[in-house]
Design goal:
By secondary structure, the chain is mainly β. The protein has one helix at residues 469-472, and strands at residues 2-6, 11-15, 39-44, 75-80, 88-92, 106-110, 129-133, 143-149, 152-157, 166-171, 205-210, 216-220, 234-238, 257-261, 271-277, 280-285, 294-299, 322-327, 333-337, 343-344, 351-355, 375-379, 389-394, 400-405, 414-419, 422-423, 441-442, 445-451, 457-459, 480-483, 494-500, 506-509, 517-518, 530-532, 545-552, 558-566. The longest helix has 4 residues, at 469-472.
């Protein structure tokens, strides 16, 4: 025993300190506590004296309060340690807590300190405190640490709880004390468990608490947002920092967020990258979303597993799910060159189409034949005949398309341009998204421009077939062209041509050869041009030299004279 005087030695406090365990229960309680059900006797001897200073010296204590000394009698007090009660006073977190931390420990507060050895310190399948949660199937949650500090016992779960999880707890009173308050020695250093009804639920406590959630704070592009750039990533902002392992980083078949669109025909769109930074998750689609496409996003919650593998078991709160949609901006024609109704200063004009955004690969036909499905070109003198192209090129940013016709237009010709437009719906996994005659398109545009009045001319002149391959190569004219005959005289739509030597000797006549040079607007078979193959009326090639020509109307009036130079 230890004795402590207080209140001026008017109060004596006696605390037990056992030197050996109970021979029956084999329990050694901590200092200051008695063995439950133990019997003790306190003897106050009559032989003790006080410290009073009297004329006769120290007096014996009158412990019987009879004002007489009892020298031969002691005062005996008998006690039986009935029980030590361990009432559960409070828990933390309690049932009112809906914002518990993911790593929150569970603490039990008792009315008095439990005896040593009466708290189950097993980390797995603990019998004092049984814990389950919504995201851990039906398996009991284990603990990484169990500590006791006076009246409180703290259980630390071995894993962080997941955000939004619901944690269910059961404190089993029978494992701490029986209905009389006797403690159970689970570790076999106290009262055996066999003495108690372990199936009893008297004094048990059931409760649950909720781990704070990480709901979505905002998304970008926002719900119902329009005019969204085609290359914009999808961003989700959360109310809290994302821990590791809760975000699905899969590029294909992502389970964290499902993105579909009209152009994907409901198929899930993959991602080229998935990244998390703080409270932000960024999903970059692996395809460039098409202009005007309607994009649907379905966020299905974070992973309920703390492993690196993403796994969604169930969702507790509806706010964990978010669905929204947005629309990609359309691509528009910004300008064209030559502009509509303008006059081109060249008979070999370059046609330029400028778009507001990059033209996707595979959405504009680069075929240079007159079967091009994206762009059609004709003119007044080539009516109903689609012209081929010498080249079709794109600018480095794909916003401009440069088209050079494989033709020389006549003076005062009207050139008609038709851009067929882009498909309204493309296929993301297709390489060819070109419009057909029956396709539903958007952004089609038609315009026309004029060719300047370049007047009549001959080409090439001088004609050098043996020197310049352009004059008579694989792609050369192999002759001299008489161009823009319709500009020589108003109202004239038929002419004839005569070729003379320098001495005015006639060498060739279209009329004598039975060749009619007629031109009619809109008739592709009657163009205002004629090519002399530099042969005389006998079919022989003329020699190098200077030659004269004359052009006549149907009445044989000369309307044009000129010179031709041939260098062989």
């Amino acid at each position: 025993m230890t004795y402590t005087w207080s209140a001026g030695k008017n109060v004596l406090t006696i605390s037990p300190a056992y030197s050996q365990a109970s021979p029956y229960f084999h329990v050694m309680p901590q200092a200051g506590m008695f063995i439950p059900t133990d019997s003790i006797r306190l003897i106050v001897s009559s032989a003790i004296t006080d410290t009073a200073k009297t004329p006769n010296g120290p007096n014996n204590l009158d412990i019987r309060c009879i004002s007489a000394r009892a020298l031969l009698s002691d005062t005996i007090f008998s006690y039986r340690i009935d029980s030590i009660t361990f009432d559960l006073v409070s828990v933390s977190p309690d049932s009112a807590d809906v914002n518990a931390a993911p790593d929150a420990p569970i603490t039990l507060i008792f009315s008095s300190p439990p005896l040593s050895g009466t708290i189950d310190t097993s980390k797995n399948n603990n019998r004092c405190l049984v814990v389950y949660s919504s995201y851990h199937d039906s398996s009991q949650i284990s603990f990484s640490r169990i500590t006791q500090n006076n009246n409180s016992v703290t259980f630390v779960p071995s894993k962080r709880f997941f955000y939004g999880d619901t944690v269910f707890c059961r404190y089993r009173s029978a494992t701490i004390r029986d209905s009389l308050g006797y403690p159970v020695a689970i570790n076999n250093n106290g009262i055996p468990v066999s003495l108690f009804d372990t199936s009893s639920s008297e004094g048990d406590k059931l409760w649950y608490f909720v781990i704070r959630d990480i709901p979505v704070k905002s998304v970008s592009p926002a719900a119902n947002e329009t005019n969204v750039p085609a290359d914009k990533a999808i961003t989700i902002i959360f109310f809290d920092t994302l821990p590791a392992g809760v975000l699905d980083t899969s590029g294909i078949g992502n389970r964290n967020i499902v993105v579909t669109s009209r152009c994907s025909n409901g198929a899930q769109i993959g991602f080229s990258s998935v990244a998390a930074s703080g409270a932000m998750a960024v999903f970059t689609p692996s395809v460039k979303l098409y202009y005007g496409d309607s994009v649907n996003c379905s966020y299905r919650g974070l992973s309920t597993s703390d492993t690196s593998r993403y796994f969604v078991e169930k969702t507790v709160f509806a706010k964990d799910k978010t669905a929204w949609s947005f629309t990609i901006k359309n691509i528009n024609m910004v300008s064209v060159q030559p502009e509509s109704s303008m006059v081109s200063s060249s008979i070999h004009p370059e046609i330029v189409m400028h778009f507001s955004d990059p033209v996707y690969t595979g959405t504009f036909d680069a075929d240079t034949s007159n079967s091009n499905r994206s762009f059609r070109l004709t003119s007044t003198f080539c009516k109903d005949t689609l012209l081929p192209f010498k080249s079709i090129k794109f600018s480095s940013d794909n916003r401009r398309i440069y088209i050079i016709p494989d033709a020389s237009f006549f003076s005062n010709d009207s050139v008609y341009c038709t851009f067929a437009g882009f498909l309204k719906n493309i296929t993301y996994n297709g390489n060819n998204n070109l419009p057909l005659a029956t396709s539903e398109v958007k952004g089609s545009h038609g315009w026309y421009f004029f060719i300047q009045n370049a007047g009549f001319y001959t080409y090439p002149n001088p004609y050098k077939p043996g020197v310049d391959l352009r004059h008579c190569g694989s792609n050369g004219p192999c002759g001299i062209w008489f161009k823009n005959l319709h500009t020589l005289k108003a109202g004239v739509n038929e002419v004839s041509v005569k070729i003379f030597s320098i001495t005015s000797h006639p060498l060739y006549s279209t009329r004598d050869a039975g060749v009619r040079i007629m031109f009619e607007t809109g008739n592709t078979n009657s163009k205002p041009e004629w090519k002399w193959d530099t042969r005389n009326r006998h079919g022989e090639l003329v020699a190098s030299g200077l030659y004269l020509y004359a052009i006549y109307d149907v009445k044989d009036n000369v309307i044009k004279k000129g010179k031709l130079i041939i260098v062989r």
